[in-house]
Design a protein that fits this description.
252 residues; alpha/beta; TIM Barrel; 11 helices; globular; binds phosphoenolpyruvate
Length: 252
């Protein structure tokens, strides 16, 4: 089976409501062949509704994701947001385990796994982020680290049909440094083989694995040409319509 590329924009803590709606409107007004690629916007919580409405006005073909969600259903969890809340605002996806959540907010593999299970049980699709630090790469433990994060993040999840993995080497996020296409491919292949071992060959073949870490118009085509790279999770370059569109149309 051939995997449909997914081009996902992680806006992080950028864009207010009006700015976010305008960016989503500008991108979805452009010529995009949604039959050959999926497109996703992950705005801050406060923008999910407005971005979803902007997407709907232009045909409703792009997906909207939250950048995080809490694993409880409701209650006394000040500052947290539930799956039901993001769904009611228009999100069908959620990004979990981003390295900024891990390093700045102290999210562990156990917490991320709880979130993955909760999100899937509520019908959301999940982008699970994994990636090694520079220190881990220099110590030669990058594959071990990434596979451990993958296995722990997916513990107890038998069906991976609504899961996408994003391999994001931490040293490449927002730094302008990109993994070489060969390094990205090697890690993606290792993740796919690992999924084959812990689940099944079929699930390994079907799961999409995105690359993230300074993906931009200049390097998207070469990264996307790697056989196990099925799309991108893009931070900085997803904030400018022209740049993100060039990545969406990486093969044009
Ligand atoms: C990210 O935050 O997921 C990311 C890959 O950021 P950037 O593209 O800016 O490196």
């Amino acid at each position: 089976m051939s995997r449909k590329p997914l081009i996902a924009g992680n806006w992080k803590m950028n864009k207010n409501v009006a700015e976010g709606a305008a960016l989503a409107a500008e991108i979805t007004a452009a010529d995009i062949d949604y039959s050959t690629r999926d497109v996703l916007f992950a705005p801050p919580f406060t923008n999910i509704y407005a971005v979803s409405e902007a997407v709907k006005k232009n045909g409703g073909k792009a997906f909207v994701a939250a950048q995080n969600v809490y694993f409880e259903t409701s209650g006394a969890f000040t500052g947290e947001v539930s799956c039901d809340m993001i769904k009611s605002a228009g999100a069908e996806w959620v990004i979990l385990g981003h390295s900024e959540r891990r390093s700045i907010f102290g999210e562990t593999d156990e917490v991320i796994n709880k979130k993955v299970k909760k999100a899937l049980s509520e019908g959301l699709s999940v982008i699970l982020c994994v990636g090694e630090t520079l220190w881990e790469r220099e110590a030669g433990t990058e594959v071990e680290t990434v596979l451990a994060q993958t296995g722990k993040g997916l513990e107890g999840v038998a069906d991976l049909s609504k899961v996408v993995i994003a391999y994001e080497p931490v040293w490449a996020i927002g730094t302008g440094k990109t993994a070489s296409p060969a390094d990205a491919e090697a890690m993606h292949k290792a993740i796919r083989e690992y999924i084959g071992k812990i689940r099944s060959k079929e699930q390994a073949e079907n799961i999409r694995i995105l690359y993230g870490g300074s993906m931009k118009p200049e390097n998207a085509k070469e990264l996307m040409a790697q056989p196990d790279v099925d799309g991108g999770l893009i931070g900085g370059a997803s904030l400018k319509a022209a740049d993100f569109l060039k990545i969406i149309n990486f093969d044009k």
